[in-house]
Structure formats: C-alpha cells, structure tokens
Amino acid sequence: MTELTAGDELAGRYVLREQLGQGGFGVVWRADDTERGRPVALKHPYYGGNAPDDLVDKYFERELSVLEDIREAGGHPNIMAYYGREAGFGMPFLVVELIEGDELGEMVREEDPITDPDEVREIGVGICDAISFLHDHDIIYRDLKPDNIMIDRRREPKLIDFTTAKGFVPEQGAPEFTSGSASNADGSDGDSTVPGEFKPPELNRGSEQRQGPWSDVYSIGKILCFIQVGWVPDDDGVSPSAFGVDGAEYLDEIIETATQHDRADRYPNASVLKRALEDRDATMPSQASLTWLGRDQRWTISPGDTIGRRSEDGPRPSIMLEDDRHRALSAVHCRFDLDDRGDWIVIDTSLNGTYISKHDERSWRYLLSEAGQERQRRAGESIPDDLETAARLEDGDTIALVSPSYPERFYVQFNHHTE
User: How many CA atoms lie within 13 A of 222 on its CB side?
Assistant: First the structure.
C-alpha cells in the first residue's frame, strides 16, 4: 500500500485533493472526478489503527454491500449517495457523494445549538424519512447519533458512515467492535455502537424490552433534544424546555414522548414520529387491528408499523412471525400507513408479494414492491403493466403474505376500529 498525498490519481479519473477525516476503520478524501466534472468523496480502509486488517476489510466490505443495496433500492435524498467502487494503491476505494456541510454533532458542539423550531422539525423529518426507507429495505443502521449525520448547505440532514449498518444477513453474536456480548434473539444486548445517552433502554444488557422500530424513535428524539440544548442527559423522557430552551411547545411534547423508557409509551416507528413532526402535533395516531386468522392472535397497529419474519439479525418488524422452514417471508414484508386522505393502506416491501382479498378470499389482488418487480424482470418473468405496490384497506379485508397458497398461512384480517 502506498502512502497517499494530495495530487495522486486513482483509476485514471479521480484526483485526490485533501484528507477529510480518519476513523477507526476508514480514511476519507476529497477528490475531483475528472470524467464527470464533479467533486466526490473517496473512502479507503484504515490499516494503521487498533483493529486487525482482516476486521477492517470485513467492515469495509459490509459498508460496500449496504451502500449497493441502498443504490439498488433507488437511494434516498437524506442518505449519502454511492457512486461505485475502485481499486488502487494496493487497496479498495468507495466513491460516494461529497456532502458540503458539517457533521451535526460537531456543528452543535463547536458553534451553537439550533433553536429555530422549524429547522429542528425539518431535520427530524429528514432523519425519520431516511430511517423508514432503510427499514423498508431490510437494512438496520445501528449507529444513530449526531456524529453520523451531516447537515448540507441546504440545511438538509444526510446519514453517512454505513460501517456498522447491516443488510439482512443472519449472523450469530454481536459485531466484534461493538459494546456488549452476543445478542439475544430479540437483539436487546450488544447490537449497537450508539453512545449511552442516545441508546434506547432496550439495547442495554439485561433489558426485558424487545428492540424494534421504536428503538430508532428513541435515538431520534434524543438527537432532536441534543441539537436544541447542545448536550443531552443519559435519561428518559427528556424535553428541551427542562434545560432552559424557549422553543415550540409541540416539539417539547414530541421529544418527551419519543424518549420514554417504555416502548409502549413512545411513537411506535419513525413514520409516526415523522407525521407528528410534520403536523406539529404530539398526539398519538389513530390505530387499527390485525387478527391472525386461525391462530386466535391479535395485534394493534399504528401507521408505519410493519410485519415480517423473525430473524437472528436484521430489521425488527413491528410484528414478527416465524418462517424458519420456507423463508419466503421477507424480514420486512409489508408496511401499514395512511394515505393523503387519511385512509389505511398496505404497502408491499417484499421480494415475493402481498395479496389482498375483499372479504371472500376467492379473488386476490397482488401487490409487489419495486425491488420484487425488478428481481422478477431479471429472472425473465413477465410483470403486469398495472401491478402496484400498495392498496387501500377496508374493514374485513384479508391479507395473505407471500401467497394465498403458501404453506405457512400468514392470513391476517384488517379492522380499522380497535377496542
């Protein structure tokens, strides 16, 4: 491996300009893409730190894999864009979006907290939207803290550094460089590198609460408190006004709800938290119910809740079902939400599809995500021109996951009115 200096050229098109940062696993350079005529960021493994080289390589490849998954899913405006992979100087490189701006944590610590309620709200909306996108595509971020969020020149937040993120790849135990010991079946131990003050209580060793989408809600709430106050305590139920911030009352209420110790008292997922911020209203959303037909089991759901397969590692859907034998159920199979009119809809996020029947279970409407449609095209299968990813729900509708004829009969009945 060659020691890099400004002016070096990679792959005949990238000219290195300056080193932007160095972490435990990677080094980032600003560079010019002479072929596209744009600035980019180049990231290569950092072999001079405390971590062994094979571990550095492992997590570099993991970040590459997750970024490729995000790009294949269409990318997201609040997530750092991935352009490709190169090799040179005896090591691999990631070519990613150069975000002109500052790390959120550094900006708040070195300058001033952000006190404009509208700006705080917009930052929160962007983070929620990015996290919901990742969950819908079977990716967990696992490192949600201010230092991994950039604020660009348009004052938009962008998630960066996917070293600790993970797509749906079942593994035993916790990452080698995270705190804690091997994770248990519900992921409540040793599955996070988030600092203590941003870490949800269910990620602490010995917690009896299950990790899920509500865990990210807690971290986002702590971040929204941090950017208004300048720091945040390792405590639950926090609000900026308790530290002398004269801000918007609705933000105080939303942050206090998001950071409750018990997950049942928080917003259930990032989509619901996003809606609360957009509406400037801390009120919990309307709910519906799902009944697992033939199993005498019922769940209460909120907009943004998901249903999918229980897994050793990967996204934690709101409702987890066992599918160990056939494994055709996706980790996050479908999501429930409200449309612009306030009507309930189901959105397929799987590779195998979701079916809707209007009461009689004789005729079924097939839904399939964009990723599932693309996989079928690659396999040479025909895709109907009118195939959709979402459908409106009515009381009594039956939802079949994977297929009405799937050996595991994941049939649930939707009902808007809960007890």
Answer: 28
Q: How far apart are CA 400 and CA 413, in angstroms?
A: 9
Is pLDDT larger for residue 406 or for residue 35? 35
* Cα–Cα distances in angstroms (integers) from residue 52 to residues 56, 65, 246, in the given order: 6, 20, 48
Cα three-residue angle 379-380-385, rounded to 5 degrees: 110
Whole-number pLDDT of residue 313: 61
233: left (phi over 0), alpha (psi -120 to 50) or beta: beta
DSSP per-residue string spanning 300-313: EE-TT-EEEE--SS
Enclosing H/E stretch for 14 = strand 14-22
* DSSP tag of 289: E
The rounded distance, in Å, linking the Cα atoms of 131 and 191 is 17
Q: Which two tokens stand for residue 88?
A: 């040179």
Query: How many residues are present in the chain?
Result: 419
Which residue is associated with the tokens 């720091």?
231
- CA-based nearest residue to 138, from 330, 302, 274, 305: 330
Distance CA 25, CA 31 (A): 19
Cα angle vertex 312, ends 306, 315, to 5°? 30
Q: Which domains, from first to last, does the chain contain?
A: 9-97 (3.30.200.20), 101-279 (1.10.510.10), 288-415 (2.60.200.20)
Mean pLDDT score of the chain: 86
Of the two residues 316 and 144, the one the predictor is more confident about is: 144
Rounded Cα distance, 58 and 85, in Å: 15
At CA 69, angle to CA 66 and CA 75, rounded to 5? Answer: 105
93 CB contacts (<8 Å, ≥6 apart)? Answer: 10, 14, 42, 43, 44, 85, 86, 87
Q: Which residues pair with 358 in a beta bridge?
A: none
CA 109 to chain centroid = 25
Calpha distance 139→312 (Å, rounded):
13
Q: At what angle do helices 213-229 and 117-136 cross, to 10 degrees?
A: 160
Catalytic residue set: 143
Q: Can you tell me the distance from the alpha carbon of 340 to that of 318, in angstroms, rounded to the nearest whole number? A: 23
Alpha helices in 88-149 (DSSP H): 104-110, 117-136
Cβ-based neighbours of 384, under 8 Å, separated by 6 or more: none
pLDDT 10s digits, 357-374: 987 778 999 999 988 998
pTM here is 0.78
